[in-house]
Amino acid sequence: MPLLDHFNPPLNRTHPWRSFHGAWAAAMARLLNQGVLPSGYYAVPLVDRDGPIEINVAAMRESGSLPPANATAASRVWAAPAPGLTLALDLPAVDGALVQVYADDGDPRLAAAIELLSPRNKDRPAARQAFAVKCVGYLQQGIGVVVVDTVTTRRADMNGVILSLLGVDVSAAVPPQSSLSAVSYRAVGGEEEPRQLQLWPASLGLAQPLPTLPLWIAPDLSVPLDLEASYQTTCEDLRIRQAG
User: Fold this and answer.
1) Which of 16, 144, 159, 183 could form a disulfide with 112 if both were Cys (CB 3.0 to 4.6 A apart)?
2) Which residues of 182-203 are buried (b: 16+ CB within 10 A; e: fewer)?
3) CA atoms of 41 and 61, how far apart (whole Å)
4) Rounded to whole angstroms, how far apart are CA atoms 34 and 204?
């Protein structure tokens, strides 16, 4: 199923984005839970953590569980490609409030987040900054994040906003070939080695299939996030058919 325009007629009238947005998040979580995520991990759609902080799809690790010595059959076969871009990174210290939210004793640990952009994330500078701050918060804690932008009615470069907040020279980034994109991020490095930001950027286009990106659930473990499969499932569930 090629990518459709969900923000202009006829789809924005027959299937409003808010309903499709929730259904797509649920389809992503369901597919991840059906043999993609290894034992000890599970995905949850539309997770609301501490009030206004909402994650469209969260990959969680069960409390007390350890990363598997051997991944599932699916993740053993699949290996993440080399990052499309690696940038030097100087992450600021993690804010204490963020530590309290994400590392509360007894709660499952957040392992990865998938964000599906909505028009309100891009419609004004304050909203774009707030979204970027949330994504930087994930990276500060070593949490992998994937940002999917299919919004056709706002042309702001959200990848550029995130990189600017991280203090990265945006001119060093790969220029987007389209205003629509999907980007997987992870921060690597530690106390004794330089921090780096790795990106897997993919340009999206209407009438084009969606890519598969690595979803990093641990420093040395990723699983395939098949955006096309979850998108097709959502369209089928909601009886959306390709025009023509």
Assistant:
1) 144
2) bbbbbbbeeeeeeeebbbbbbb
3) 4
4) 26
Residue 189 three-state SS: coil
Q: What's the DSSP call for residue 156? A: -
What is the pTM for the complete model shown? 0.83
Question: Tokens 């210290």 correspond to what residue?
Answer: 93
- Tell the residue number behind the tokens 């930087």, with chain if given: 136
Residuewise pLDDT in 10s, the chain (244 residues): 789 999 999 999 999 998 898 899 999 999 999 989 988 888 888 755 444 446 788 888 876 555 555 544 444 567 888 888 787 766 544 332 222 222 234 567 888 999 999 998 898 999 999 999 999 999 988 899 999 999 999 988 899 899 988 887 766 565 555 679 999 999 988 666 778 899 999 999 999 999 999 999 988 899 999 999 999 999 999 999 875 4
In terms of DSSP bridges, do strands 196-204 and 144-149 run parallel, antiparallel, or are they unpaired?
unpaired
Q: Where are the domains of the chain?
A: 11-237
Closest CA to 107 of 65, 156, 166, 148: 65
- The CA distance from 78 to 148, in Å, is 21
3-state DSSP assignment of residue 107: coil
Which residue is listed with tokens 């990174």?
89
Token code pair at residue 3: 């990518």
Six token digits for residue 188: 């690597």
Residue with tokens 């290996």: 79
Closest CA to 152 of 25, 9, 14, 45: 9
